Amino acid sequence: MTERQKDRPWLMRTYAGHSTAEASNELYRNNLAKGQTGLSVAFDLPTQTGYDPDHILARGEVGRVGVPVSHLGDMRRLFQDIPLEQMNTSMTINATAMWLLAMYQVVAEEQGADITKLQGTTQNDIVKEYLSRGTHVFPPGPSLRLTTDMICYTVNNIPKWNPINICSYHLQEAGATPVQEIAYAMSTAIAVLDSVFASGQIPDDRRGDVVARISFFVNAGVRFIEEMCKMRAFGRIWDKITRERYGIEDAKQRRFRYGVQVNSLGLTEAQPENNVQRIVLEMLAVTLSKDARARAVQLPAWNEALGLPRPWDQQWSLRIQQVLAHESDLLEYEDIFEGSHVIEAKVEALVEECLAEIGRIEEMGGALAAVESGYLKSQLVSSHAERRARIEAGEEKIVGVNCYETTEPSPLTADLDGAIMTVDPAVEARVVAALKNWRDTRYQPPFNHPRPCKALEKLKQAAEGTGNLMEATLECVRSGVTTGEWSQALREVFGEFRAPTGVSSAPVAVTAEEGTPLAAVREKVARTAEELGSGRLRLLVGKPGLDGHSNGAEQIAVRARDAGFEVVYQGIRLTPEQIVSAALAEDVHCVGLSILSGSHAELVPDVLVRLREAGAADIPVIAGGIIPPADAADLRAAGVAAVFTPKDFGITEIIGRIVDEIRKANKLDPLEVPA
């Protein structure tokens, strides 16, 4: 042990929530008992996108990837016996962030807490939702207003709360390079701060208080040196922007404050035990360097590419952090990379490139304008396509996937269906019934809420004006309003937004020169179209339900386009009815469905039934996503032509198999085209 006082460890979190508020509360209390030092709440997709569990789009999604919170009663149960005044809670919530924070505040008040002492973070970064995660609701302008109002409210009323966690994590998942990740996150921060300061709600002498509450949530990938340098570059650029653009003199207020989730994109379904060392290496990138160390870390579990982790899997990830913090000597030293010429040169290069890209975005009118024009999305789709092409070509090696594929049988995955946690399908019916009971009894003792219609009218009136929306939102919470009612009221005023997909403008990432795999598939596509007399083969790529992870669907769409298909892709958040209607209207030859949220068991068979009822049972349906083996077998038994999961990384090969299924469905002979 050195004479230097040991640094405090970072906050240790596990991103968690599932099924019901009661089940998630038990999970949180168990995790805290195991030494977790902060909570990180995962909400289900209906909650994230502003729908009640009984909405048509919520079907199959309730409690799947997080906890459903439909009203104040759910929030009470979620944090029962957890003293919020003593807790540091992170809530991964964006479009409905104001609503969830309002419920959190009211529950804290009911516990007797002093809300000025509440600590935690609401993610509240809507820009990256348009680009990658897909849980946006409202158009960019109104969404920025909600974020602005929430920041101003918390700075004035909940001063220890971080009202926004500008989130570059999902940008990397969507294909962002380190330069893009930094530049897009910083451009978002500029848009948010400009809006806050232009709102007139914060005096000039309190600008530093606002900047001090802006936090970031980043991704740490497996390229250790690059990721560590990325964090140092992030800090330097943030210091420069806040000092030069906003005049913040206090270095403490300019500090780059960030939490991290290490990269889930790089976790593999093949040889998933290798994910453990990936997670450790990625964690080191954001902990070894004291001058760029994360303030909070949450690690995925080794089996997240297979499905929903079990409590034991999450415990393993927590223990990884605890061993590093408490058994190693990491926290006993100053920054161990200071003075490294290699590190300094890489950081300087990143800073220079990032500032140039930030400048380009500013010339376009800022982050929101670059979202609406489609520039940011198309850049991410292109970067992701280029990465996938490098993997398929073997230029970027992934152990167990495109190299060193030979493996001994793994005891961890001997029972694949038992290696993940499943959500009881009956949960959804119970949650829907509980919601109905809440609506029927919210006016009665012991609740005695005033009728919510008046609170919702006040909310709409406030939305039509220019005042801060937080007080009207708090009144809705106390009136027993539901998540869907609050969101619908704002939808009526603000409208909804369908973000650009980036598919049509993405450049070709894989060449189709003679002798290449793509050239062979292109010939297959052309010959099949000729035999069918259809001009071109048409593929519908559909995203049913609320799953907004569209990266895989976009890559399939781009590669199919490059292979000669006419691609119909309308983006995320469609009902099975809408997908079937589009398939019939466009006279497609195949329907491809992409679902990563676990709702495939309900939504894919629904599409099959609707196609049969429409007399189009001959259109083959394929499915892709995080689909456990037993579910894949059930889907094939129901009539799905093929099921693809993350282990099927060869996109060109997938497109070729789609052509095979089209030929089979149309009773054409198998077609082998020499590569």
Alpha-beta classification: alpha/beta
In total, how many domains does the architecture comprise? 2
Q: Would you report the number of β strands? A: 15
CATH architecture of the largest domain: Alpha-Beta Barrel
Major sheet details: 5 strands, parallel
Average predicted confidence as pLDDT: 93
Walkthrough of the structure:
With 675 residues, the chain is of the alpha/beta class. The protein folds into 2 domains: 11-393, Methylmalonyl-CoA mutase (TIM Barrel), CATH 3.20.20; 517-666, Cobalamin-binding domain (Rossmann fold, 3-Layer(aba) Sandwich). Helix content is 47%, strand content 9%. It contains 25 helices and 15 strands. It has helices at residues 21-33, 45-49, 72-78, 97-110, 127-133, 140-157, 169-173, 178-198, 207-212, 224-244, 275-285, 311-327, 341-363, 367-372, 375-393, 426-441, 452-464, 470-478, 483-494, 517-532, 551-562, 576-585, 600-613, 629-638, 651-665, and strands spanning 11-13, 15-16, 39-42, 88-92, 119-122, 161-162, 164-167, 214-220, 258-262, 296-298, 538-542, 566-569, 590-595, 621-625, 642-644. It has a 5-stranded parallel β-sheet with strand order 1-10-9-8-7. It has a 5-stranded parallel β-sheet with strand order 2-3-4-5-6, covered by helices on one side. The longest helix has 23 residues, at 341-363. It is globular and about 75 Å long. Heterodimer of an alpha and a beta chain. GO terms for molecular function: cobalamin binding; metal ion binding; methylmalonyl-CoA mutase activity. InterPro entries: Acid_CoA_mut_C, Cbl-dep_enz_cat, Cobalamin-bd, Cobalamin-bd_sf, MeMalonylCoA_mutase_a/b_cat, MMCoA_mutase_a_cat. Belongs to the methylmalonyl-CoA mutase family. Its cofactor is adenosylcob(III)alamin.
